[in-house]
Each structure stands twice: as C-alpha cells, then as structure tokens.
Amino acid sequence: MTVIAPDLSADLVSVAHEMAEAGRKAILPHFRSVGLTADSKETVRFDPVTVADRAAEVAMRAVLAQRRPQDAILGEEMGQQAGSSGLTWVLDPIDGTRAFLAGMPTWGVLIAVAGAEMRPLYGLIDQPYIAERFEGGLGLARMQGPGGSRALATRPARPLDECIIMSTFPEVGSAEEGAAFHRLASQCRLTRYGADCYAYALLAAGHIDLVVEAGLQTYDVQAPIAVIEAAGGVVTDWTGARADMGGRLLAASSPEVHAAALAALRG
What we know:
Layout: H1 6-27, E1 39-40, E2 48-49, H2 51-67, E3 72-75, E4 79-81, E5 88-95, H3 97-101, E6 108-114, E7 120-127, E8 132-137, E9 140-145, E10 148-151, E11 164-167, H4 175-185, E12 190-193, H5 198-204, E13 210-216, H6 218-230, E14 234-236, E15 247-252, H7 255-266
Parallel strand pairs: 3-5, 11-12, 11-13
Antiparallel strand pairs: 1-2, 3-4, 5-6, 6-7, 7-8, 8-9, 9-10, 13-15, 14-15
Helix pairs in contact: 1-2, 4-7, 5-6
C-alpha cells in the first residue's frame, strides 16, 4: 500500500487540476467544430481518435514534464513512459471519442495517479464543455460545476427493482457478457446507455446506482474507481476482485447493491 504525505497529496491534486485545465484548452476548440474528422485505431471496427485526443495528451504530458518528471505515465494515445518515484499517472485524454464526434457532452478527460500494484490513489473526471469536474481520493470527494462545489456521495442502498443502471454499449462485450448484463438490467427499474465516463461521475454524485461494462482498459477505469470509492461506492470486476487494470467493471452505489448485482451477473 502506498502512503502519501499531506504535502505530496496537495502537490498531486494541484498537478491533476493543472493537467485538466491544459486538457480543456486543447480540446474545446475542436468540440462541435465544422469538419472534425477521426482516424480509426482498428480496422475491424471503428475505434476513433481525433486531433483533440492527441493534443490533450500532449498538453497533459507537458505539465508532468515540468512539475512531476520523476513519475511514470500511462496514456491511451502515447503509451508508457518510465519513472522513478513509484507513482504512475494514468491518462485518457478523451474518454468517449464517439460521443465527442457526435457532439454529445458525455465524454470526459480522465486523470488518475496510481501507487504500488497500480492501485489508484486519486482520480479526476473532467467534462470541459459543461465545466463539471469530479475528483476523489487523497482525502477528497467533491465536484465543481456551474452550480458551485459540493461533496460527492453515492446514494443509499435500495432494491434492484428501484435501481438505475447504465452502460456505454447495449452489447456490453461478448454475447455471454451481454446476456449477463441484460439479466441484471432486467431486474432494475431503468437502463440507460451511451454516457461513457460521465456515467461513473453520475454514480459518484448520487444520481444512479450501477454502471456495468466489459472490455475496458486501464486508462478507462483508474480515475472512475478512485472517484467512486472516495464517494462511498464499490467497484470490482464481475467476480468481486479488484478491477484496477480494466476488463469487466461493476460499479455500485453501496455494498448491498453491489452484492445483489454481482449475484445477478453470476446468474
């Protein structure tokens, strides 16, 4: 377990916010711009990347080069960079590039710092267009937005048939994974799709009860895990083990909701 001194905690949070501001400045000129195009990182399916994704990661890495050059980096667009401090910054410059291309403000910038065994210590979910920022870890659990600042807290436990569940894609992964998800979703009151990382922010803020996804990468999950756990929620894989490296993710508002959802996924 990585122990972080108060002065280092304050520095890490300050660096994360500086990176979020740099990401905003790099991304916003491109959002909803005329003629925005995307390359695909895959040939079988459309996995888009835009000039905004690349520019944001370059801008965030520039902040780290100046303020925390001793730390390692894992970024979606530019890969890994070694460090000597034992800390790793995990960056997803635009989580939800498909939403970004469609002009939907449900994408976000994900920033996390991980310690030993890649356990997330702190995470930040930033939505530049609507100016909302959610952060958790290192003693913090708060959001800032047009309505001001407030503490983050997940909603109290309630039965599955009163829960709201979200996922990015209706397919949720393989046919088997999709069947497990829909078995769980059929027991919930309301199912919504397409929010990408913003769904995790909504869970941390107390608006929904569950987010369930599959096929995720390390940079997809590190920041949401830190924010949700700091707000009182539970995040694991579909077996109940930690999910810090991605894969299948089950995020719940409470231990009770998590247990019920895990049972439904297992069938």
